[in-house]
Write a structure and sequence with these properties.
5-stranded mixed β-sheet, about 40% helix, 10 helices, alpha/beta, homodimer, Nucleotidyltransferase, domain 5
Chain lengths: ~300, ~300
Amino acid sequence: MRLGLDIGGTKIDAVALDDDSAVLARVRVATGFGPDAVLRNAQSAALQAAEAAGGSASSLGSVGIGIPGVVDAEAGVVRHAVNLGLEELALGGILAERLGAPVRVENDVNAASLGAYHLLGLAGSMAYLNLGTGVAAGFVNDGAVWRGARGTAGEIGHIPIDPAGIRCACGQVGCLETVAGGGWVAHKWGGDAPLPVLEVFDRADAGDERAVALRAELIGGAAAGVRILILTGDVETVVIGGGISNLGDRLAEPVRASLDELARGSQFLGSLELSSRVRLVPAGEPVAAVGAALSGPRQNTKEPSWRS
Amino acid sequence: MRLGLDIGGTKIDAVALDDDSAVLARVRVATGFGPDAVLRNAQSAALQAAEAAGGSASSLGSVGIGIPGVVDAEAGVVRHAVNLGLEELALGGILAERLGAPVRVENDVNAASLGAYHLLGLAGSMAYLNLGTGVAAGFVNDGAVWRGARGTAGEIGHIPIDPAGIRCACGQVGCLETVAGGGWVAHKWGGDAPLPVLEVFDRADAGDERAVALRAELIGGAAAGVRILILTGDVETVVIGGGISNLGDRLAEPVRASLDELARGSQFLGSLELSSRVRLVPAGEPVAAVGAALSGPRQNTKEPSWRS
């Protein structure tokens, strides 16, 4: 059995997959804060997922982990996962020892990319456009994640698209993230709604002008992200995921319409058929946890069933 | 022996490579205009290169061709090569019959990418930033060209970077090409110098304010191209090529300085060490022709020597 853990800012989403990569069980536990809590809860989530799938601690095949921050996949080390209180943690090595199973650590966006690719049954090339607090992308080609030469592929949120834009937290001006990142939308909108982007969309539907403008900016930014990904990598499919993608077709339809509008102004863009290449991540599925499981150490081999 | 032909707007650059991919001979002939002329001159260039290398028409191993326009590499067909007077031409099939050797047709930027990768002795991942009349990029990873899902990877010249910019020929506004493309620089500069970008650099050195501004815009655009390529694909190396790269360090040094300036304003960008990843294409080398030869049908096999 392969376990996958998606360690997020508030919860750990854990799944157990069978030999055919179908989800046998899914559990969620609170993440906690700081290295001790994260390690303890990750271990607990893994064991609970194994147990829920009918397995035991002694029958774990492999464990894959998706986690935010800068991940050194080779060393199993995560750094600068600020929201989790982790400055530097040898997550892979420590959990492997505690669980008695091989553990692979992957950047959360890369894990989600692989999960989306699998759950959508895609082939060929795909980019995963993660619209969450920030904006980043992951790439999968023929089932393999492209991490880049130094593990930083897909940082498209920090490509500047407007010299007259606002200053990004990264120090540059007019980054894509400043128009398409949920953190910036929330900051511009103000208030303390638990789901500020949802509130912006709801208020825009109700005719609030400021909300309409913010929504249009977000939609335009998402379309710009799709355009960057296809003009650069010519991926066959761009899958929109991340927290904002929970808006579903309320997000995807206007993004496609925005791309169609761009195509009407440019025969060249039109020839690329951008809008028809946009997909939404499947709603409610544990995309990142499944991807983490698939990126685990035994990704390409059939394990013996733990039910022996 | 492997032959490589780089079919450009004015000349065909042809090389013959030995089994170790070293250049045995190089010849150049005028391209001509329209399908009949291009086919006749390509055939002639191939035979002259073979002869100059000591071979004969009956001993050609493989022929690779780099050509501008929209290339269907599978079918060997080139479309919309406007500067060559080619609307649609089954270049690969026709030349294969005339030469009695397998022929592979490749987009010129992809061919140059592969040639630069080989001539610079690179490993891992590379993007080739072609600064010519237009702006486009090619990708090579572990020696293989990434063409994209539909053969259009690397069209970064048409990523808009300034909503207040000028309208590009593609119909969009503020495309990277409108600041970093030689065609646009020439258009803005005016006059009829044979090498307008060189004239702009010379006049900028002499203190002409308009030239200084145009040069700064071009340098900034080239730096933006490097940033897009690394933020998206995290390639280890970006090689600057194309006609404008003939300026050598007069181009590369200020591009690196521009990237260093950006890094001083952004710790995040600084961590990516952009400027140290920029290389220039080797001066005077037949980069595209060599790459075309390497992309020929027998790219991965040692051919028997034609000297038998």
